[in-house]
Amino acid sequence: MSASRDADPNGDTGKGADRPRLERLLGTEDIRWLVDRARSRIERGQELTGVVTLSSATPEQRDAIQRLLGRRPRPGSSLTVSLDAVDAVLRRSGASPDGLAAAVEELTGGPVRPRAEVEADLTRAWDEAYEPLSTACARRPELAEWCARLRASGLVPRLLGTPAEAAPTLRTLATVVSALPADGVGLATFAARVCGDAHGLDDGRPLGTLALGAARALTGVPAGSGAEWRREAWTAAGLLTDDLSSTALAFGLPGDTATPTGRALAALREAGQPAVLTLRQLVQTPARPLPNGTVVRVCENPAVVSAAADYLGAGCLPLVCTQGQPGTAVLTLLRQLGAAGAELRYHGDFDWGGVRIANTLLRRVPWRPWRYSAADYRAAVRAAPGTPLMGTPLTAAWDATLTEAMNEVGTRVEEEAVLNDLLGDLSTP
Description:
This protein is an alpha/beta fold. It is built from 21 helices and twelve strands. The protein has three domains: 110 residues, no CATH class; 116 residues, no CATH class; 180 residues, Dna Topoisomerase Vi A Subunit, Chain: A, domain 2 (3-Layer(aba) Sandwich), CATH 3.40.1360. The chain has a six-stranded mixed beta sheet with strand order 6-5-8-7-9-10, sandwiched between helices. A two-stranded antiparallel ribbon has the order 1-2.
């Protein structure tokens, strides 16, 4: 329908839009692009003046503009439309007496707010939602940095939705953060007390995901994945998810007679017996400061601990065993010993599995090699030929030349093959 047939000859400019007439002029699919362009301009805070161009317009789109403006568009593949002309037609026709901007609002479901205004309101809403958490984190730089990174990451909207939807969880998260680190309590017990829900910090819950990030930021546990890694991160913040089954094997550790765990360690050391420490004991009774220069040796295999108990007894220097890949209790003990002033020295099997374990441990706990270099490997091969080295080579993070030597020689040497050397290092002078 042409503009001339829709125009009001009396120039009626009533306040309301004539919806049926407006639908005929701007409501078809072939002219929807023009309405969308106009709305986008309003959202950007621009005036609805000048022209808009549609490249590669279809014949139907060109016909729709001809019906609207009452004249054929210029030839060519593109289609250029004057917004001023459209505004004038809408006013004269009575379809939208208030012009194109009012027509766009009528057709697209309500007032169009400038995008900058919408974004400013959204920012204010997020500021209000984050305010309790920001306040709780402000007192500790590591948490303040984490909070800023969390907001910049967009994780909270992905997990929780709008500011209004996220605000209650962020308030609870602020309470959790304020209560960290804990003092060796169970995670569920802590969640019941702080969150009002024993399962509030469970794996997979949005609050649990966010709180675990705060625990990592507070304790410096590196990024990772899997159940063992989550247990390690919670434990570092004083929260236990499995406080009895995760254990650490140690021998000859000094005991602090002021605590039950310390007295047990002292008695076992005097008796020349190894100790098996639960995660619960380690978190609730951390290691006390050690004398300067204290060295704690760390091995991979329990056979080393057993031989030390058999041959050295109470005369064995401090020793901790990872028992393969170190679990949460082992990592907790080693971190506590390092914080107490001990220098950790590590030895493992000379094979690719041993290198993998050592690399994993080094990413989590600083240590120096204990007879675990390229030179030590070559000496071990000369003393005990070992077996063929199998598997995929790995670079030893503490000594790249060890990888080169192992590739060159091609022999696997287990810790048990060098026990005499290790026991000699563990003997008291």
